[in-house]
Design goal:
Helix content is about 20%, strand content about 25%. It has about 350 residues and is an alpha/beta fold. Helix 6 (about 305-315) packs across helix 7 (about 315-330).
Length: about 350
């Protein structure tokens, strides 16, 4: 299926369907439930009644860092969006206005916080080094940075500070993401307790989500798209738990495409999940054979995005287009702060 054209994954979305604010309470978001046979409109708080008592939910515990910075370079305002830490301590970032920056220049974010431009790349990407040790960087980011909301959520400079807590799952624990694992944003402590009381177990994995997650594919054919890499981890204990669950005939439910991607990256052809601690650039498109995940909880994704391609692989492209058309008609809210769908695995295309 890798000869598919990218425009096969396009669809029209009215701008007013793009959620600008998160649903409150978190678990009152709407939930479109899809199986190979039927479709139902529910809410996230219905999950304890929808899921089976022996299901196991896989949550991504990555924590979003305040990766959007506003600074100045020779009195010119500069926006820096960090998206990936490099092994040598430098960071890849998107800069605006990138064309006016020069290698060797310093961008200042505060009296005690600055970064040097080490390299310029295509499409406004730069390599920066902060004039602060790694152990102090998070403190400075928390002081000067903002939540790195995706571009379709509109905020004036400074306004995104109010999203610092809301653009974070309640189970976030490990700093490193520059975008939220958005399906996890729907959970509350009370909902997790209710699920536990119903016998629904949870397991924790990590995938530090990169900014490239939300970008549309710009190549004509999907086979030509270069997937971004993200760092993930599955501990030996979690791998053992999930393998035992599969042997017992229990369903593994990935909360979000990030959980799914790290699970599928660590699973062999026989369906055995292995411990994992490395980067993954897995690109899941129609024709892919899923080995680890039985059910996927995910938000509604951008047209022409790798995430819409992933759900098309999971349920079938025509089925997902029909489901999205229903969601648009019924005024579901789309993207990071939007509603969710629960997908039970179907045909690959």
């Amino acid at each position: 299926m890798d000869d598919l054209r990218t425009d096969a994954f396009d669809f029209d979305l009215p701008p007013d369907r793009i959620a600008q604010q998160a649903c409150e309470p978190r678990d009152h978001a709407r939930l479109l439930c899809l199986t190979p046979e039927e479709q139902k409109d529910r809410h996230v708080y219905d999950l304890p009644d929808i899921l089976r008592p022996d299901d196991i939910l896989v949550l991504n515990d990555t924590r979003v860092i305040p990766a959007r910075l506003y600074g100045t370079r020779d009195a010119v305002r500069v926006e820096i969006l960090l998206h990936k830490k490099q092994s040598d301590g430098t960071w890849l970032a998107f800069a605006r206005p990138g064309k006016r920056l020069r290698v060797g220049q310093t961008v200042r974010f505060g009296p005690d916080f600055s970064a040097e431009i080490l390299e310029k790349r295509e499409c406004g990407e730069v390599v920066v080094r902060f004039a602060a040790p790694d152990h102090d960087l998070l403190r400075l980011l928390n002081r000067y940075g903002e939540a790195p909301l995706p571009p379709y959520i509109k905020r004036a400079p400074g306004e995104a500070r109010a999203d610092k807590d809301r653009y974070q799952t309640v189970f976030a624990a490990r700093d490193g993401a520059v975008a939220a694992p958005t399906a996890g944003l729907h959970f509350t402590p009370a909902l997790l307790e209710t699920l536990k009381a119903k016998g629904i177990e949870t397991a924790i994995v990590t995938l530090h989500v990169g900014a490239g997650t939300f970008l549309p594919v710009k190549t004509e054919h999907i086979r030509d798209h270069i997937m971004h890499a993200e760092w993930g981890e599955i501990t030996p204990e979690v791998a053992q738990t999930l393998n035992a669950a599969h042997k017992q005939g229990r369903r593994i439910i990935a909360v979000g495409t990030t959980s799914l991607r790290v699970l599928e990256s660590s699973t062999d052809e026989a369906g055995i999940i292995h411990p994992f601690a490395q980067e993954t650039s897995i690109f899941i498109t129609p024709g892919y054979r899923f080995r680890a995940v039985d059910v996927l909880l995910t938000n509604f994704h951008l047209p022409r995005s790798t995430l819409f391609m992933l759900v098309a692989a999971f349920m079938g492209l025509e089925r997902m287009k029909a489901a999205y058309a229903h969601a648009i008609k019924e005024h579901y809210r789309f993207y990071s702060y939007g509603d969710a769908c629960l997908l039970e695995k179907g045909a690959s295309f």
